[in-house]
Specification:
Layout lengths: L1 E5 L2 E5 L7 E6 L2 E5 L8 H16 L3 E5 L3 H10 L6 E2 L1
Parallel strand pairs: 4-5, 5-6
Antiparallel strand pairs: 1-2, 2-3, 3-4
């Protein structure tokens, strides 16, 4: 997994990833907008856990915004809600 930075936009890339997941870094927190995310599978959850761990190792908070109820439930079931702020 690799993080590429362009100004205040950051992109997550890695082997086997068909899409780039981007977020915005502001004031010590990395924000990811889930407004257009309708579904996430277990592989996606595992990738997000790796992503959050990477940011935490670098001392950066992570916040997921505009997360629908179904995905919030998956975050809770996986324990991801214990390490990130989600709304």
């Amino acid at each position: 997994m690799e993080i590429l930075r362009t100004s205040n936009l950051l992109f997550l890339t890695g082997e086997g990833k068909s899409e780039v997941f981007s977020g915005v870094y502001y004031n010590g927190t990395m924000y990811y907008d889930f407004a257009n995310v309708k579904f996430i599978n277990n592989s996606g959850i595992a990738d997000l856990i790796d992503l959050v761990k990477l940011w935490m190792e670098m001392g950066t908070d992570v916040k997921f915004i505009h997360v629908n109820e179904e995905i919030q439930k998956k975050f809770k079931d996986s324990g991801l809600d214990q390490i990130i702020c989600c709304e």
